[in-house]
């Protein structure tokens, strides 16, 4: 499970109440597990699983639940999204979001907002053409394909046969996938290497779409977008981070985090450059993980981790100011109760005081890739493993806190 888990508290599964974890595996199996015992409550296996298991055709996607907590939505590497009933895992509908799943991969978490499932596509290691990154909106009730916004050949609506567009790539592969503004429903994505022409091709760009994924509301590209494309320095190696009413942070493979203004991005006129600020990633190297935003004492903080370090910034007068940094690697951070949980790809889940950066615990676990933890309801949940190893089994770690205790109160007393 080379992604993250989701958690539903006190849901009915097979006639009993459970605190349940839901995960999607490398080859598209989706499992429901009891959060306290790890017992498998049900398992969904997509059609064609046996033909895909062990191959390069994988997914790193995280499922999503709808607000009723009666259904979850999950991706599989055959190119489909499926709606599954929480109670027993049976399929309500399946909808394809690509016409070429052998080339177009689902890397990122699914999202659900105002009755719509939002999904994005990317490509596989090696960027073998043809493929395009696109944003898809599905009706959560029926599975109907409502809209597609293509980051290449964007003048064309609907799912493309990838070889029908003269341009390839522009993957949408950040670890948060599409980022939804909870007030407006607007959708933010960042794209990877490809042609950028400011009209129909939007490689190495940040894009704001309306809630229906039907029209562009804003856009940004670095002034050196051609250089990024030529040197394989994807701007979209991570997803945008919304840091308040007007601010967006965007990391990249070039070791930079750019602070942008939504007002300056607004409209369909192409916008290049004019960043509010550029800061280095924690170690000045590629950022493949998703920064975390934290509201603390009335201030906005951001945390990020890369292969060489972990760092924290606070927004002061519209600028990111470094608060602390260390040399310990990490995947996407998760803040809970004033603690920051950061998984090291080589193994170990590090726990820091979020405000000071002081390490208070390291929980033992194996190595991984893009996996990231979630922490809630007294459980710390982390998948291990690397989808690129093409394994068909893996490990899910669950640490339990003593019942009723706040996370911060027992920072050094985790029970595996």
Structural class: mainly beta
User: Which outline best applies?
Assistant: globular
Q: CATH topology of the domain at 97-280, which one?
A: Lipocalin
The CATH first-level class of the domain at 97-280 comes to: Mainly Beta
> What is the spatial order of strands in the main beta sheet?
1-2-3-4
For the biggest sheet, the summary is: 4 strands, antiparallel
Strand percent estimate: 35-45%
Poorly predicted tracts of residues: 408-416
The radius of gyration is 20 Å
Q: Name the CATH architecture of the domain at 97-280.
A: Beta Barrel
Helix content: under 10%
Total helical segments: 3
Pfam family, one: PQQ_2
InterPro entries: PQQ_rpt_dom, Quinoprotein_ADH-like_sf, WD40/YVTN_repeat-like_dom_sf
Domain Pyrrolo-quinoline quinone repeat: 15-146
Protein name: PQQ-binding-like beta-propeller repeat protein
Describe the structure in your own words.
A hairpin with a 2-residue loop joins strand 23 and strand 24. Helix content is 3%, strand content 39%. The chain has a four-stranded antiparallel beta sheet with strand order 1-2-3-4, with no helix packed on it. The chain has a domain at 97-280: Lipocalin, CATH 2.40.128.630. The chain starts with 5 loop residues before the first strand and ends in a 16-residue tail after the last strand. The chain is mainly beta and 416 residues long. The protein is globular, with a radius of gyration of 20 Å. The chain has helices at 49-52, 225-230, 262-265; strands at 6-13, 16-24, 30-34, 40-44, 64-65, 71-76, 80-85, 91-96, 104-105, 111-113, 116-120, 122-123, 134-139, 145-150, 179-180, 187-190, 206-209, 216-220, 241-242, 247-251, 256-261, 277-280, 292-296, 299-306, 309-316, 319-326, 334-336, 339-343, 349-353, 359-363, 374-376, 379-383, 396-400. Residues 15-146 form the Pyrrolo-quinoline quinone repeat domain. InterPro entries: PQQ_rpt_dom, Quinoprotein_ADH-like_sf, WD40/YVTN_repeat-like_dom_sf. It comes from Rhodanobacter geophilus. This is PQQ-binding-like beta-propeller repeat protein. It holds the Pfam family PQQ_2.
């Amino acid at each position: 499970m080379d992604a993250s888990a989701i958690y539903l508290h006190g849901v009915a599964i097979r006639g009993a109440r459970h605190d349940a974890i839901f995960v999607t595996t490398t080859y598209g199996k989706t499992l429901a597990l009891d959060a306290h015992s790890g017992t498998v409550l049900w398992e969904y296996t997509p059609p064609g699983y046996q033909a895909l298991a062990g191959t390069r055709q994988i997914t790193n996607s995280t499922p999503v639940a709808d607000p009723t907590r009666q259904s979850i939505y999950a991706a599989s590497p055959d190119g489909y999204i499926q709606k599954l009933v929480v109670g027993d895992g049976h399929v309500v509908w399946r909808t394809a979001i690509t016409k070429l799943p052998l080339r177009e991969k689902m890397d990122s978490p699914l999202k659900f907002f105002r009755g719509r499932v939002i999904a994005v596509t990317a490509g596989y290691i090696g960027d073998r053409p043809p493929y395009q990154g696109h944003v898809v909106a599905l009706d959560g009730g029926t599975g109907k394909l409502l809209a597609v916004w293509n980051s290449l050949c964007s003048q064309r609506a609907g799912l493309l046969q990838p070889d029908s567009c003269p341009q390839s790539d522009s993957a949408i592969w950040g670890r948060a996938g599409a980022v939804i503004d909870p007030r407006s429903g607007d959708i933010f994505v960042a794209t990877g290497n490809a042609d950028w022409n400011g009209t129909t091709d939007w490689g190495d760009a940040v894009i704001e779409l309306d809630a229906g994924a039907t029209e562009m509301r804003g856009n940004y590209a670095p002034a050196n977008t051609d250089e990024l494309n030529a040197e394989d320095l994807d701007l979209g190696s991570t997803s945008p981070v919304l840091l308040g009413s007007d601010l967006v942070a965007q990391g990249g493979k070039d070791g930079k985090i750019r602070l942008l203004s939504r007002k300056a991005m607004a409209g369909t006129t192409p916008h290049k450059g004019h960043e509010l600020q550029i800061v280095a990633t924690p170690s000045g190297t590629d950022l493949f993980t998703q920064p975390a935003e934290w509201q603390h004492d009335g201030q906005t903080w951001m945390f990020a981790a890369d292969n060489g370090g972990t760092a924290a910034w606070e927004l002061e007068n519209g600028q990111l100011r470094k608060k602390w940094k260390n040399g310990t690697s990490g995947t996407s951070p998760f803040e809970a109760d004033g603690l920051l949980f950061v998984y090291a790809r080589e193994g170990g889940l590090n726990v820091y005081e979020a405000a000071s950066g002081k390490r208070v615990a390291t929980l033992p676990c194996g190595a991984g890739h893009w996996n990231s933890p979630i922490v809630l309801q007294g459980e710390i949940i982390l998948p291990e493993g690397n989808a690129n190893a093409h394994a068909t089994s893996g490990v899910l770690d669950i640490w339990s806190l003593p019942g009723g205790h706040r996370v911060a109160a027992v920072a050094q007393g985790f029970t595996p």
